[in-house]
Amino acid sequence: MFLARLANPSRFMAFTARVLPWLAIATALLLALGLYQSWTAPDDYQQGATVKIMFIHVPNAWLSMFVWMIMSVSALGTLVWKHPLADVAAKAAAPIGASFTFLALATGSLWGRPMWGTYWQWDARLTSVLILFLMYLSLIALWRAVEDPTRAARAAAVLTLVGAINIPIIKFSVEWWNTLHQGESVFRMGGPTLDRAFLIPLFTMAIAFTLLFVTLHLAAMRNEILRRRVRTLQMMQADGRTS
To answer: CB under 8 Å to 14, separation ≥6 — which residues?
Structure first.
């Protein structure tokens, strides 16, 4: 299988070296197209120009949850399948996911101020996303606090799987509780409620941000593999000097 071949770090490095330039180009082109479509999209009859925050906020909100799901699969790879790159994938994804989550919270606050009259409200959706952001930070701190990579990988994998409980809470919070946050308007029974003038730029930006994540994630995995190789060499040199 393709993924099995990429379990070899050297093969993974060679593959990403070929793919990353093309991914970066595709990401830049789609982001440029998405930003142009977002800029030229009409104002909303109620929200005015502030509705265009949606084109940044929604993709970041989607990716904040998607990245955690990727990390959850990687956690299973660490604990169950013992995949050699599973922990690398999870550790590389955590700071990126934290960034997407922070941007979702920040842009959501800017969007909410003219609509709700406040930058923040302790409702179910906003609170659960804030908890997700704090869990990202906790994972990053855990990887840095535990020196033994094997112990850190297992502890982070367990914490990731426990934290995955929060993903359906975020997704269905607007249905389970009475919140200020609007309900689902894109992926819903009966089709999207958004007009095509908003839906097309939104999808373009969502694909562009997803490609951005893939590009950044592969680059971060390469850096993590190199960092671990350097650490291994340093430990071998230290053992050689002490023997």
So the answer is: none
Ramachandran assignment for 117, one of left (phi > 0), alpha (psi -120 to 50 degrees), beta (any other): left
Is 207 in contact with 80 (CB distance < 8 Å)? no
Q: How far apart are CA 40 and CA 36, in angstroms?
A: 6
Burial grade of 198 (CB within 10 A; 0-12, 13-18, 19 or more): buried
User: CB within 8 A of 111, min separation 6: which ones?
Assistant: 50, 53, 54, 57
Question: If you compute the radius of gyration of the chain from its CA atoms, what whole number of angstroms results?
Answer: 20
What local confidence, expressed as pLDDT, does residue 185 receive? 66
- Report, as ranges of residue numbers, the positions in the chain whose pLDDT lies below 70: 1-5, 182-193, 241-243
Q: Show the DSSP H helices in the chain as ranges.
A: 2-5, 9-40, 54-76, 86-116, 124-145, 149-163, 166-176, 196-242
Q: What pLDDT score does 115 carry? A: 82
